Amino acid sequence: MATEVKVPDIGDFDDVPVVAVLVSEGDKIEKEDPLIELESDKATMEVPSSHAGTVKEVKLKEGDSASEGTVILLVEEAEEGGESGSDGEDGEEATSEEKDQESAGGAEAKGGGPEGYGDGGKRSQGTQPEPEDRAGASGGSKVDTGSSKVHASPSVRAFARRVEVDLRQVNGSGRKGRILREDVEKALKGQSQPAGGGQQAQGGMGIPPIPPVDFSKFGPVEEVEMSRIKKISGPALHRSWLNIPHVTHHESADITELDKYRKELDTAAKEEGYRVTLLSFVIKASVSALRKHWEFNASIHPDGDKLIKKDFYNIGFAADTPNGLMVPVIKDADRKGIEQISRDLLDLSAAARDGKLKGDDMKGATFTISSLGGIGGTSFTPIVNAPEVAILGLTRAEMKPVWNGDEFVPRNMLPMSLSYDHRAIDGALAARFAAHLKFLLGDVRRLML
């Protein structure tokens, strides 16, 4: 008979958003295994299981809300002595539960949250003699990690899928060869060798690891925990940097007249409770440039021989939050005017700062813009967010003397840094894209075409 597993007492929180579901039907779970991840405006928490057994039905999905007493899933409890949640004493054979899990391959854990983000990097200890990383994973497309005959928990399998590490090529450092999250991270960084093979673990590309340094020898140090967002985005950025041949093209756009018009719109918008920023116009111009140069709105097919041409235009933008950068997505930007884009920017930026973005708010981008706005800088190299093939970086506009044929005149110039995947885009095409973007931003009337 199935038993209901409910959300326990989680303090003074009600209707907390579910940002990740870490198990799926058919998974074998133990007591204290993480089931879901909740994220309030104050904290992120994993909810552990109160029962051991086989998951029969998951009642919650990403985006749902949960409170104390909410049913998470139904579990068919293990018979007395039939299954065990620990690895046992040294020298014991693997338990029947572990064998069943290995032979069945372990059901895939459901991922939630934004593409390219995943677990919160937290750990909880069960009854095992050695602690095991229990961090969940979310987001990203599912890939075959070849985990059908490996010994790893559902959360570790989910993490491996997200960072695209083949578990068959990872040495487990846990009891009886169990693969821990740390093992997957080492494989991703190229710091571990696959079991029984001579090749570098997937994601490492044979790059030697950076040797550790004991900085305490030189003075006082303190270990500061990285934010959840940085833990999530780090592996994805590392993967993109290693796999994509980046090239960055730099250009400057004259936005003198455009910015005058923007200020007029912004003055009127303030009275209605929103703002019109330069980014709204850059998004509008980017859509026009993407239509003209569709290769920038494409992705490389998994077989590497084709481009996937996309006939929709979803623009991601980097939003600065107290916990780090997040990338909300403005959907169907080609169907929206400056006012609606400005409102979307305001709403999504506020949700990002307040930790209230939903998973769908950060999925489906075809092109991304990273704007440093008024912070400063003259140029930089933004990292392409795979499976996209290009990203536009903006730094602070400033007045510069520009020769008009007769004299130098002050013009408001916007630096642009266009990074692209050289497999899909060559230098000449990138230069044309940037030139067209510059042309559009040079006269606001061109954006109406």
Please give a structural write-up.
- It is a single chain.
- With 449 residues, the chain is an alpha+beta fold.
- Helix content is 24%, strand content 21%.
- The chain contains eight helices and 19 strands.
- It has helices at residues 96-104, 154-163, 181-189, 228-243, 256-271, 278-292, 338-353, 427-442; strands spanning 2-6, 16-21, 28-29, 34-39, 44-48, 53-58, 65-66, 71-77, 246-254, 298-300, 307-309, 315-317, 319-321, 324-326, 329-330, 367-371, 390-394, 398-403, 408-421.
- Strands 9, 12, 15, 16, 17, 18 and 19 form a seven-stranded mixed sheet that branches. Strands 1-8-6-3 form a four-stranded antiparallel sheet, with no helix packed on it. A four-stranded antiparallel sheet has the order 5-4-2-7, with no helix packed on it.
- α6 (278-292) crosses α7 (338-353) and α6 (278-292) crosses α8.
- The N and C termini lie far apart (65 Å).
- 40% of the residues are buried.
- Mean pLDDT is 80; it is low at 81-148 and 191-204.
What labels describe this entry?
single chain; 449 residues; alpha+beta; seven-stranded mixed β-sheet; 8 helices; 19 strands; globular
Structural class: alpha+beta
Radius of gyration: 25 Å
- Element-by-element helix/strand order: EEEEEEEEHHHHEHHEEEEEEHEEEEH
Number of strands: 19
Overall pLDDT? 80
**Could you say which overall geometry the principal axes of the C-alpha atoms support?**
globular
Give a quick account of the main beta sheet: strands, pairing sense, barrel closure: 7 strands, mixed
In terms of DSSP E residues, the strand content is 15-25%
Distance between the termini: 65 Å
Helix content: 10-25%
Count, helices: 8
Low-pLDDT residue spans: 81-148, 191-204
